[in-house]
């Protein structure tokens, strides 16, 4: 009987630590939030071709 897939444990996609059962596939609530935030950030960072120049630095 093979050992219980100990090595098949996933890793947190955010910080690469071993995932925890409570926060799969992340290691903690913190990483969970971070992943969500980065995901939302990606959405808002949709490339927009604007004709307007960004405001000059002041
Ligand atoms: Zn993590």
From TrEMBL:
Q: How is the cofactor bound?
A: Binds 1 zinc ion.
Gene Ontology terms describing biological process: regulation of DNA-templated transcription
A GO molecular-function descriptor = DNA topoisomerase type II (double strand cut, ATP-hydrolyzing) inhibitor activity
Q: Does the keyword Ribonucleoprotein apply?
A: no
Task: List, alphabetically, the Gene3D superfamilies matched.
Answer: Erythroid Transcription Factor GATA-1, subunit A
Pfam families for this protein? YacG
Mind telling me which InterPro entries this protein's record contains? DNA_gyrase_inhibitor_YacG, Znf_NHR/GATA
Query: Which cofactors are named for this entry?
Result: Zn(2+)
* Keywords, comma-separated and alphabetical: Metal-binding, Zinc
Output the SUPFAM superfamilies linked to this UniProt entry. Answer: Glucocorticoid receptor-like (DNA-binding domain) (SSF57716)
Residues reported to bind Zn(2+):
12, 15, 27, 31
Q: Which domain of life, per UniProt? A: Bacteria
Q: How does it assemble?
A: Interacts with GyrB.
- Describe its function: Inhibits all the catalytic activities of DNA gyrase by preventing its interaction with DNA. Acts by binding directly to the C-terminal domain of GyrB, which probably disrupts DNA binding by the gyrase.
**Similarity-based family:** Belongs to the DNA gyrase inhibitor YacG family.
Query: What is the protein's name according to its record?
Result: DNA gyrase inhibitor YacG
């Amino acid at each position: 009987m093979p050992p219980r897939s100990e090595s098949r444990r996933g890793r947190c996609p955010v910080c690469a630590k071993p995932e925890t059962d409570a926060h799969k596939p992340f290691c903690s609530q913190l990483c969970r939030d971070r992943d969500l935030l980065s995901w939302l950030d990606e959405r808002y960072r949709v490339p927009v071709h604007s004709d307007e120049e960004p405001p000059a630095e002041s």
